[in-house]
């Protein structure tokens, strides 16, 4: 077995080297090379099955595609890069490109990365142009999708073009800053920075192994953040450097202040406090801590102010913020529109949206597109570890679902060993508390359970399968295999034979600001690191978990960027994606689905505004009027304890009452409001009783607007359902009632009748009620419609759209997926997102829901009568987006989510 494994690794390396120079190798070419090299002595022992598996792995890897993405930019910028190419020698970029080739990045991905970073570089200023100049931009990537590779490539190209000083502002914790420095060492510096300020001999890493002719100067290293004394020890003023200098610093006000002071002391131009060298600032995770969150026009938060001080130090500077969750950046200064650009970090000059490679395993696929994604719901934690636990919580036991996740990780790792992944990293994530004291207890409990499992496998794992199964732990592992992995390609006997090798190396590491544990994958390149990482905020921002297979996520946040950034399970899973599993509460899955949809809408808006030649300012104003700004702004201002006025445009949006009042008076009033709607429609010659029956109910077409307005007026809305407040919605409709919103489609949602079922006649028409559960966090005054807080079924917004239009947008969506290499496999159905139909609606769609509620919450309330809810799909508006004002009372939010309200503060989860 060892001989075949060694031969397989040798074969893989040789084939990869030969294929690197071929643009898109055919399957036949891949197999031809494998067959040819299998006969060499180094590759002996590789059987036909292993060779075919390797061929398929190369097909998957080399078939990966990537598209360039979209850009909006200011109209005053003068293109300069094409003319400058004659003088630019791509020394740093060529080294980095060679590193990517050696890391077996797909050829097409490298080519697109080259094009994308050229595009971004061209949006910066020509570094040889004399100042003063100052450009601000933003690059929107995806969580765990390769943003570091993108900005490392940009750094290399900026250095080639003539930028002399590069500052990378990494995460707010040391472990992320150190990880970023290691990657910059590998991709740009070329030397192990940890040795640069010691007496040890130099060690070349990454790009330094290809060429050491030119050497960038680094003022920070992989074990220590910026320090004045260390920087002074370099002994070279920035203006005298022949090669570019780079700083990788923690996003910390003291560090930023030290850097600014050191620059003033050592590198400023004589007679002034400014530095003349052209500077590029890369702000990683730019939506975190960089945003000015102080209330009032004159307030400036510390980190935000220090970054602006740094930029002011330079006569010539460019700031590029990288983020996967740009909500906060686009909503910078949410109080006023006229001051949006201001002196803040708003990306006034350009916004670039990156498209991920086709093999990216991201939130859109996980929560929107793929019904087979393996999400497991956590519903057994309340009695042992509540989501809203306190800092002083004593962890006496952990949920059984966590032990299932642990066993799944071990079984999945055994299967990876069966697949020949002996030297690959394998990780599990446990993010169940924001408090370090609780994280430590969770880590210890997992450690002890892991030791018990390891002992059982060591003692009984080598026995015959029937005998081994007498051990309860091995029986539990078998049950996991049977539940999760019977389709993974290996019988239980094969998996059992690998359990000891899979479990023995696994360690449990606590990852937070106070722990000694690290995730230094670089030290285990030859053997692979197998680790269970337990943490909170440190695991939620930029930190990459290599080979992540199993995630256990038990957190409560409705802040878009916080929640999405916690998704460390996104990324690339070559040849083991089928083994990945995610545990989370059902409520969190609903939020993720909503946020994934919101981000996709933002990206689509960016594409359409690029086609319209819009500027970042115009895009910012457009997006800030989106309904999502209600929750983003409210969460940013929850601590203020005041009512907020937020201006919203409802064009191309979908709103529904997923949070309802639960008192009998309100429920009865809402049933009357829906019955009155039926009566008024009948009086207007649009009788729902005579309406066309469509697959999801009774559809009234071309109805007048007045009955809709009256329904919104009579409906008793819950204050927690901010977007469905009747007053601003009525004002929005009133402003357009003589044009775009004059006539409506109205769907009375009804499921198919089952044998013997009797329709409900509450509204005066026969309705077969949809069944929905009450969310577990419902109480006596509040009814949450399902844990996911969704009322409508998927695809409902297609109702009323002309067939030729629905066919057109479905074909366009298929073409978009094809361009990104993300079409589903043959035999798998494609779920079209509702937003594509909304964009081509001729008329708005009102959906009236009559719900049979299955109570699952602790209130014990049983709903004898059906519950009424509504949804509205607003079409795009051809007019200027006239906005209406929503008054948001933060009290409900603060009471409901008070246990997480300090989550965004620096160190807030590690007190």
Explain what this protein looks like in three dimensions.
The chain is of the alpha/beta class and 911 residues long. Helices cover 37% and strands 14% of the residues. The strands form five sheets. Strands 1-8-2-7-6-3-5-4 form an eight-stranded mixed beta sheet, sandwiched between helices. The longest helix is centred in the middle third of the chain and has 26 residues, at 586-611. The two termini are 49 Å apart. Residues 293-300 and 899-911 have low confidence and may be disordered.
Strand order of the largest sheet: 1-8-2-7-6-3-5-4
* Major sheet description: 8 strands, mixed
What would the average pLDDT be, to the nearest integer?
Answer: 83
The total number of structural domains is: 4
- Share of residues in strands: 5-15%
Helix content estimate: 25-40%
CATH superfamily membership of the largest domain: P-loop containing nucleotide triphosphate hydrolases
Low-confidence stretches: 293-300, 899-911
CATH third-tier fold name of the largest domain: Rossmann fold
Q: Quick one: CATH class of the largest domain? A: Alpha Beta
Q: What is the SS-derived class?
A: alpha/beta
Salient structural properties:
single chain, 911 residues, alpha/beta, Rossmann fold, 4 domains, 8-stranded mixed beta sheet, 7-stranded mixed beta sheet, 28 helices, 14% strand, globular, disordered C terminus
Topology (elements, then pairings):
Elements: H1 2-19, H2 27-37, H3 48-62, E1 70-73, H4 81-84, H5 91-102, H6 107-123, E2 133-140, H7 147-161, E3 165-169, H8 174-189, E4 217-218, H9 228-234, E5 245-249, H10 253-266, E6 279-284, H11 302-312, E7 316-323, H12 327-330, E8 350-353, H13 363-369, E9 375-377, H14 400-418, E10 426-431, H15 436-460, H16 465-468, H17 472-484, H18 492-503, E11 507-511, E12 530-535, E13 548-553, H19 560-565, E14 581-584, H20 586-611, H21 616-624, H22 628-636, E15 643-648, E16 654-656, E17 659-661, H23 664-683, E18 692-694, E19 697-704, H24 706-714, H25 726-734, E20 743-749, E21 770-773, E22 782-784, H26 803-819, H27 835-838, E23 845-854, E24 867-873, E25 884-889, H28 890-896
Parallel strand pairs: 2-7, 2-8, 3-5, 3-6, 4-5, 6-7, 9-14, 10-12, 10-13, 11-12, 13-14, 20-23, 21-23
Antiparallel strand pairs: 1-8, 15-25, 16-24, 17-22, 18-19, 19-20, 23-24
């Amino acid at each position: 077995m060892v001989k075949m494994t060694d031969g397989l690794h040798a074969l893989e390396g040789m084939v990869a080297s030969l294929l690197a120079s071929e643009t898109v190798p055919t399957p036949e070419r891949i197999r031809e090379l494998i067959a040819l090299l299998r006969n060499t002595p180094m590759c002996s022992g590789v059987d036909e099955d292993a060779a075919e598996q390797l061929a398929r792995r190369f097909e998957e890897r080399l078939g990966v595609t990537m598209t360039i993405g979209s850009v909006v930019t200011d109209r005053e910028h003068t293109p300069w890069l094409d003319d400058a190419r004659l003088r630019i020698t791509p020394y740093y970029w060529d080294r980095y490109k060679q590193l990517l080739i050696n890391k077996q990045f797909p050829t097409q991905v490298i080519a697109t990365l080259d094009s994308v970073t050229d595009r971004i570089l061209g949006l910066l200023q020509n570094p040889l142009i004399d100042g003063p100049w100052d450009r601000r931009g933003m690059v929107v990537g995806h969580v765990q999708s390769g943003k570091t590779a993108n900005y490392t490539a940009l750094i290399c190209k900026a250095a080639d073009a003539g930028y002399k000083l590069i500052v990378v502002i990494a995460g707010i914790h040391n472990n992320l800053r150190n990880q970023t420095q290691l990657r910059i060492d590998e991709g740009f510096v070329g030397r192990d920075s940890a040795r640069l300020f010691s007496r040890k001999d130099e060690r070349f890493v990454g790009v330094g192994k290809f060429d050491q002719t030119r050497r960038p100067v680094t003022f920070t290293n992989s074990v220590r953040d910026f320090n004045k004394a260390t920087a002074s020890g370099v002994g070279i003023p920035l203006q005298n450097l022949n090669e570019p200098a780079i700083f990788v610093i923690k996003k910390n006000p003291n560090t930023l202040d030290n850097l600014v002071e050191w620059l003033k002391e050592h590198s400023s131009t004589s007679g002034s406090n400014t530095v003349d060298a052209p500077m590029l600032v890369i702000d990683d995770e730019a939506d975190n801590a960089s945003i000015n969150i102080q209330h009032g026009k004159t307030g400036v938060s510390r980190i935000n102010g220090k970054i602006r001080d740094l930029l002011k130090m330079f006569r010539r500077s460019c700031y590029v913020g990288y983020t996967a969750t740009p909500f906060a950046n686009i909503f910078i200064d949410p109080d006023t529109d006229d001051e949006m650009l201001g002196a803040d970090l708003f990306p006034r000059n350009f916004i670039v949206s990156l498209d991920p490679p086709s093999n990216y395993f991201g939130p859109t696929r996980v929560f929107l597109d793929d019904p087979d994604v393996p999400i497991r719901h956590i519903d057994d934690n309340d009695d042992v570890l509540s989501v809203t636990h306190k800092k002083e919580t004593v962890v006496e036991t952990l949920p059984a679902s966590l032990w299932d996740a642990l066993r799944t990780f071990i079984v999945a790792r055994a299967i990876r060993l069966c697949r020949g992944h002996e030297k690959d990293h394998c990780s599990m994530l446990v993010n169940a508390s924001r408090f370090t004291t609780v994280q430590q207890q969770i880590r210890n409990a997992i450690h002890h359970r892991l030791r018990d499992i390891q002992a059982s496998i060591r003692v009984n794992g080598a026995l015959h399968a029937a005998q081994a199964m007498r051990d309860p732990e091995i029986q539990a592992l078998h049950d996991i295999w049977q539940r999760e992995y019977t389709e993974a390609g290996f019988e239980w006997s094969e998996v059992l034979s690998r359990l000891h090798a899979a479990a023995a190396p696994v360690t449990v590491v606590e990852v937070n600001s106070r722990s000694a544990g690290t995730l230094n994958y670089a030290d285990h390149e030859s053997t692979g690191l197998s680790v269970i990482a337990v943490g909170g905020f440190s695991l939620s921002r930029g930190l990459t978990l290599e080979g992540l297979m199993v995630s256990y996520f038990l957190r409560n946040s409705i802040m878009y960027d916080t929640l999405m950034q916690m998704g460390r399970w996104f990324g690339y899973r070559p040849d083991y994606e089928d083994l990945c599993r995610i545990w989370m509460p059902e409520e969190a899955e609903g939020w993720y689905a909503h946020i994934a949809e919101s981000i996709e809408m933002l990206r689509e808006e960016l594409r359409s505004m690029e086609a319209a030649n819009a500027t970042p300012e115009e895009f910012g104003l457009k997006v800030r009027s989106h309904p999502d700004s209600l929750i983003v702004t409210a969460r940013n201002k929850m601590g203020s304890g005041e009512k907020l006025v937020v201006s919203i445009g409802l064009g191309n949006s979908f709103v529904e009452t997923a949070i309802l009042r639960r008192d009998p008076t309100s429920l009865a009033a809402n049933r009357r409001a829906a019955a009155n709607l039926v009566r008024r429609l009948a009086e207007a010659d649009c009788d729902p009783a005579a309406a066309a029956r469509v697959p999801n109910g009774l559809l009234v077409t071309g109805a007048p607007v007045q009955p809709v307005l009256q329904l919104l007026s009579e409906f008793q809305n819950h204050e927690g359902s901010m977007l469905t407040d009747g007053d601003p919605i009525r004002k929005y409709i009133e402003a357009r009632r003589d044009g775009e919103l004059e006539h409506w489609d109205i769907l009375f949602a009804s499921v198919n009748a089952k044998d013997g079922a009797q329709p409900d006649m509450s509204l005066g028409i026969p309705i077969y009620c949809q069944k929905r559960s009450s969310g577990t966090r419902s109480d006596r005054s509040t009814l949450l419609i399902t844990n996911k807080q969704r009322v409508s079924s998927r695809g409902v917004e297609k109702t009323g759209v002309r067939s030729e239009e629905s066919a057109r947008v479905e074909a366009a969506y298929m073409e978009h997926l094809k361009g990104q290499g993300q079409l589903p496999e043959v035999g798998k159905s494609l779920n079209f997102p509702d937003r594509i139909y909304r964009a081509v609606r001729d008329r708005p769609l009102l959906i009236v829901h009559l719900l049979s509620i299955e109570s699952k919450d602790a209130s014990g309330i049983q709903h004898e009568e059906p519950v009424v809810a509504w949804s509205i799909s607003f079409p795009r508006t051809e007019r200027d987006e006239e906005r209406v004002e929503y008054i948001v009372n933060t009290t409900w939010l603060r009471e409901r989510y008070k246990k997480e309200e300090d989550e965004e503060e620096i160190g807030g989860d590690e007190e």
